[in-house]
Fold these 2 entries.
Entry 1:
Amino acid sequence: MPDPTPPGPTSASTPPPTSPTPIRILLADDHALVRRGVRLILDREPDLEVVAEAGDGAEAIEAARSQEIDLAVLDIAMPRLTGLQATRELVALKPGLRILMLTMHDNEQYLFQALKAGACGYVLKSVADRDLVAACRAAMRNEPFLYPGAVTALIRNYLDRVRHGEEDPDQLLTPREEEVLKLVAEGHSSKEIAEILFISVKTVHRHRANLLQKLGLHDRLELTRYAIRAGLIEP
């Protein structure tokens, strides 16, 4: 007799139904025992595969140069080059590479430095068996992964900056920048935007450069995605 109980929702750690090509992972930690344990966690998942290991940040960079990898999992405290230093180098070397920090340090300063360096997630070793697999999959979906205490730290830091006037929550972009962003996202050329807003093409270019810098974006496509998320245009 078939089981009448319907299947439950897929958990964050459940692999996708089909994953023909496993996510290729570089694992860097200066303790071989830690690497072995982390590798066991990752390699038992069908969509994850550790293809390279490194004992420090410099070795991690060399491994990234010589092998095709999709994701780097780096310890923060390592000899020669730390995980933070290696992250900066890897981001410059392979801009599409996703990077997770795996650390024993529940430390706001390290967290902010890791995110600023280019990491997309921060996982504590103490709960790696619970969080690391989900963090790897989130990274490959281009989603950030932070443990609950890190989220609290980020919110507290943002609110402190607002209170001290370092952030204006309602005025990240000026009204004119929002207008330019909307028109860029709608596909208008710089010349067309200049005509619509009665400003010079040079001014349009300046606004667009300011938008990219303020929002940490790189091109028109990313500006368009931001405009959709911000509700400035319909998807």
Note: Strands lie at 23-28, 48-54, 71-74, 98-103, 121-124, 145-146.
Entry 2:
Amino acid sequence: MTVQVVTGTGTEIGKTVVTAALAAAALAAGRSVAVLKPAQTGLRPGERGDADEVARLAGPVTAAELARFPDPLAPATAARRAGAAPVSPEEVADAAAKLATEHDLVLVEGAGGLLVRFDERGSTLAEAARLLAAPLLVVVPAALGTLNATALTAEAARARGLELTGTVIGGWPEQPGLAERCNTEDLTEAAGAPLLGALPWGAGSLSPKAFRAAAPKWLAPELYGRWDAAGFRETWAAG
């Protein structure tokens, strides 16, 4: 794994915290890590962005951001409203490829979901992933409704010739209901790819020290961790 693209089935579902957990686990395994945020929206200059948050939680990673737009909108819309040039998939691919020459792992965290528009041509994160020949890690919610969104994301990815590494639940509740517990089984079928981890709800509020110590427990060995899918499902068996 050299470049890993992190996307999700929507916004505010834990992509940044999952990216941080993957970075922390990789660092603990002795890998050098870079995190690239192609388009940061909803923040002004000087405010901490998603790449900065990954670095705060995970530790010594190289944090990079290609563009920032103040409105909390899709990158194409935010760029247009700011009167700024949008980010192109080619720019994303070039930046990630350069980082990959200097790091063992490059994590590219998208904005929103896979098909959110980057520019007026309709380019998306999927095009950047295709140019990089990089697999997708899809961050998903645990609750009711996740299966349809996960299946649609997986279908859109495969229609574009992209490989899925798997899915990670961005926020697992302390007291999961029937839907969440059943989804630990059904997400694999919906994605056509393995469930590779689950972060506890509120993981991003932990201290950096506690976050880094716990991150490998939340992710499967494929993601530098020691999380066990079978054991997790047994713990939360739907009954």
Note: The longest strand covers residues 33-41.
